Amino acid sequence: MKKRIIRLLIALIVLVILAVLAIGLFLNAAIKRGVETIGPKVTKVDIKLQSVSLSLLSGSGSIKGLVVGNPEGFQEPSAIRVGTASLALKPSSLLADKIIIRSIKVDGPEITYETTLRTSNLDKILANVEEATSRGKKESSRPQEPAQPKKAKPAKKLEVGEVIITGGRVRGSVTGLGGITTPLPDIRLTDLGKGPDGITASELAQKVLAAIKEEAAKVVSGATTDFGKGAAAAAMGAGSNTVRQITDGLLSPFKKKK
Questions:
Q1: Dihedral of CA 12/17/18/24: which sign?
Q2: What ranges in the chain are assigned the alpha helix state H?
Q3: Which residue has the higher pLDDT, 177 or 170?
Q4: pLDDT digits over 109-163, tens only?
Q5: Nearest Cα to 94, choosing from 16, 38, 40, 31?
Q6: Helix residue spans in 180-241 (DSSP H)
Q7: Strand, coil or helix: what is 90?
Q8: pLDDT at residue 90, as a whole number
Q9: What span, in angstroms and rounded, lies between the C-alpha atoms of 70 and 80?
Q10: Partner residues linked to 67 by β-bridges
Q11: Dist CA 256 CA 254 (whole Å)
C-alpha cells in the first residue's frame, strides 16, 4: 500500500512538471506570436523575434534576436536590434488583471538613427506607437451601446519596476549617404504603470522608445557636430560636399525643433 502511494505521488509530480512545461512552451509560443503580429500593428514596421523563454516557476525569462524594422522611406535594414534581453516577473500575477514585471534588462542593443531632411526613423516609429496608444484609449473610453455585441476582453495591464538598457550603440546615418557610430548612454526607467490602473503594452513601448530616441538623438547630434568640425578642417579647400550633407542631414531634425 505504501509503495502504491509513493508511486502515485511520483506520477502526480511528473504530471505536474509536464503540465508546467507544456504551459510554458505554449506561453512562449504565444508571446512570440503576439510580438510578431500585434507589434507591427502598433509600430507599423516589421518585427521579428527569434525565441522566447519564460519559466512560470521562477518568473524569469529571456528573449533573443529581436529585430524592429525601418519605416517606409528609410533605407537601413532595421531601426533596433536586440541580441538578448532578460526579465523577472511575479508568476502569480500572470493570473491577475495586472502583470507585475520586476525588471526588464536589455544588453547591447544596436540602434540605427536614420534621418532624412525632415524627420528620423525613430521619430516615425514613435509617432506610430503614440497614434496606436491614443486610438486604444479612445476606444476603451467610448460608451458601449446596448445594441452592439460585447467587446473583447481588454488586454491585461502591466506594472514594470525598472527597465535597464546598457551597452548599446547608435549608428547615425543620413538616408543614402552613410554615417557614424557612437555608444548609447545607459537608460534606466522606473515605476512604469505603478498604481491600480497600470499601463498597456503599447504605452510601455511608447515610454521605452521615447527614451531611446531622446538619448540617440543627443549622442548623434553631439558626435555629428564633432565629426563635422574635424572633417571640415581636414577637407578645407578640397571642395567636399559629402561631409556637409551628412552633418546637415543628421542635424536637420534638431534644427527643425528650435
A1: positive
A2: 2-43, 121-141, 201-234, 242-257
A3: 170
A4: 999 999 887 889 999 999 999 998 887 666 665 555 554 555 555 567 999 999 9
A5: 31
A6: 201-234
A7: coil
A8: 92
A9: 8
A10: 48, 81
A11: 5
Look at residue 113 and give its three-state secondary structure. strand
Q: Residue 217's closest CA among 176, 185, 241?
A: 185
**The C-alpha cell of 257 is what?**
525643433
- Domain ranges in the chain are 2-138+156-257
Distance between CA atoms of residues 168 and 183, nearest Å: 6
- Which of the four pLDDT bands, split at 50, 70 and 90, describes residue 220? confident
* 4: confidence class by pLDDT, cuts 50, 70, 90: low
Q: What is the pLDDT of residue 123?
A: 93
In this structure, what C-alpha cell is assigned to residue 67?
529585430
Strand ranges in 30-177 using DSSP code E only, listed in sequence order: 47-54, 60-68, 80-89, 98-107, 110-115, 157-166, 169-174
> Rounded to whole angstroms, how far apart are CA atoms 72 and 219?
24
Angle between helices 242-257 and 201-234 (to 10 degrees): 140
